[in-house]
Amino acid sequence: MSRTRSEPCHEPLKASKLFAFPEKLSDFFVLLMRLGLIVCLVASISLALHSAFSTRTRWFSFPDHLSRNVSDRKFGPTNISHLLFGLAGTVHTWPNRSRYGELWWDTNTTRGFVWLDEKPEENVSRQGVVSVPYRVSEDWSRFKYLSSQSAVRIARIVLESYKLGLPNVRWFVMGDDDTVFFTDNLVSVLASYDHNQMYYIGGSSESVEQDTLHSYDMAFGGGGFAISFPLAAQLVKVFDGCLDRYYTFYGSDQRVWACVSELGVPLTKQRGFHQFDIRGDPFGILSAHPLAPLLSLHHLDNLEPMFPNQTQIESVESLMRAYRIDPRRILQQSFCYNHRRKWSVTIAWGYTVQIYASLLTAKDLQTPLLTFKTWRSWSDGPFTFNTRPMSSDPCGQPITYFLDKVQEVGRSGTLTTYKRFVAKIGNSCGTADYARAMAVQSIKVASLKMDLEHWRKAPRRQCCEIMDRGTVKDSSLRIRIRKCRPWETITI
Ligand SMILES: *[C@@H]1O[C@H](CO)[C@@H](O)[C@H](O)[C@H]1NC(C)=O
Ligand SMILES: *[C@@H]1O[C@H](CO)[C@@H](O)[C@H](O)[C@H]1NC(C)=O
Ligand SMILES: *[C@@H]1O[C@H](CO)[C@@H](O)[C@H](O)[C@H]1NC(C)=O
Ligand SMILES: *[C@@H]1O[C@H](CO)[C@@H](O)[C@H](O)[C@H]1NC(C)=O
Ligand SMILES: *[C@@H]1O[C@H](CO)[C@@H](O)[C@H](O)[C@H]1NC(C)=O
């Protein structure tokens, strides 16, 4: 039945013929007939589409308000003003920890609040210093808890941030009041995800004991994590009921994870967030950073200062000086050899350079030196990555240099200088080879700034070249970092 009706529609149409000017009256009728065929075609297609969708809408529909919100938020690249930070603080910790906030917060562009447990005395931050504005958490005492009531309050920062209803928020970024964020890198990383989808992005703890105790699948809060707007919108609907279901949990971040899990959204792991569940000296991790942009540092007050002869705050300031001129390159590792002298040189840009008076393989140089312990039990491991022990032989230990000067060269180049520090590691090797390496007092590193698209491409470590091939005359070594050639390897 329908077959006979639809048959004429199958007749092929020739557009050129159809719209040619009719020469005779009979042609005109032919044209009219063909137009009729088009109408017939369009009508049957739209009928088919309509019936397909009307069956669907019985069990699946788009509410109007949702699609409108999506189109408002949809367009343009993500920038810093699309992020809303929610930091967990207390009136007791914030006055001291706000010093970290001051180092990365930009009042003109960064949006967000530190959420405090009660209203502070008037001067919560140091006088004359711009820092993160605060909010006081709403009452959280009605929720069940077992070990930590404050974890309930902190978990609810996601919800309270959402409820502020601020415009154009694409990502809710959670952290602690002692988390240092590297916002340029965070923005580029988040911009690479579709903020109109439900995302939960963060990182694990470095200490296996922490991951087994809490979960490998959750984002640890101190390292910071990001929740996209659409995920937050669904999360807030179930959150308070969910909190009571997981009242036995210890941490706030674990509660958020459990509730996100109920929505079926897994953690998207992103390297570069540093919960820093470690003790001692973070040097090993920072000098062999994974090939990913630096996004955050945490627990810095619990660790030895990153730079010798500096407080931890001064250390972050030092790192920030380099970060500001080439944010994408901060801590990125490159290594090269002086084959004649049998030296291995490894650079963590903007932080440190090490010289080994021996040839180490790429595999060794990219493995963090074990200069730290686990968080809970202060053990030598295990960690969620491999480590290598510091050699007990002084001649196998590196000579370390730390960032001293940062210069921009033109618009696109940088020159960083690293100064030798004996204090950090022993350096009591007596061989002539080692003494020659020890004679190097400072190292100058030249490089081009990493381009905006750098982290969108397949990751590859950059190469370096030691410019002083012959004898080191003036106790200063010059190194150039550059892209590796396609075939280039780092081979002893
Ligand atoms: C961020 O992007 C929005 C458009 O989505 C624009 O209006 C705003 O000025 C941008 N902000 C910054 C700091 O670039
Ligand atoms: C913020 O903007 C104002 C005016 O545009 C400017 O004077 C001030 O230096 C900026 N502050 C920072 C920290 O960039
Ligand atoms: C708090 O700030 C006010 C005005 O800015 C100042 O007069 C007062 O001395 C400050 N108090 C403390 C304890 O810093
Ligand atoms: C602030 O923290 C530093 C450690 O970073 C500590 O040395 C100092 O005593 C603290 N100050 C106060 C007032 O708690
Ligand atoms: C350590 O810092 C002090 C003061 O900032 C400075 O006088 C001293 O020379 C530094 N020591 C070294 C080894 O750089």
Structure report:
The chain crosses the membrane at residues 28-49. InterPro entries: DUF604. Keywords: Membrane, Transmembrane, Transmembrane helix. With 492 residues, the protein is of the alpha/beta class. The protein has two domains: 67-269, Alpha-Beta Complex (Spore Coat Polysaccharide Biosynthesis Protein SpsA, Chain A); 327-482, no CATH class. The protein is built from 15 helices and 19 strands. The chain has an eight-stranded mixed sheet with strand order 11-12-13-15-16-17-19-18, with helices on both faces. The protein has a seven-stranded mixed sheet with strand order 3-2-1-4-7-6-8. Strand 11 (333-338) and strand 12 (343-348) form a beta hairpin. Helix 5 (94-104) runs parallel beside helix 13 and helix 6 packs across helix 11 (252-262). Residues 1-22, 39-43 and 47-72 have low confidence and may be disordered. Bound molecules: 2-acetamido-2-deoxy-beta-D-glucopyranose (5 copies).
Which helices and strands appear, and what pairs or packs with what?
Elements: H1 2-6, H2 15-18, H3 25-56, H4 64-73, E1 83-88, H5 94-104, E2 112-116, E3 134-136, H6 149-155, H7 157-163, E4 171-176, E5 180-181, H8 183-191, E6 200-202, H9 208-213, E7 225-228, H10 229-245, H11 252-262, E8 268-269, E9 278-280, H12 283-286, E10 296-297, H13 312-325, E11 333-338, E12 343-348, E13 352-356, H14 362-365, E14 372-374, E15 399-409, E16 413-421, H15 432-438, E17 442-448, E18 463-466, E19 476-482
Parallel strand pairs: 1-2, 1-4, 2-3, 6-8, 17-19
Antiparallel strand pairs: 4-7, 5-10, 6-7, 9-14, 11-12, 12-13, 13-15, 15-16, 16-17, 18-19
Helix pairs in contact: 5-13, 6-11, 10-11
Bound molecules: 2-acetamido-2-deoxy-beta-D-glucopyranose (NAG) (5 copies).
Residues 76, 79-81, 109 line the site of one 2-acetamido-2-deoxy-beta-D-glucopyranose.
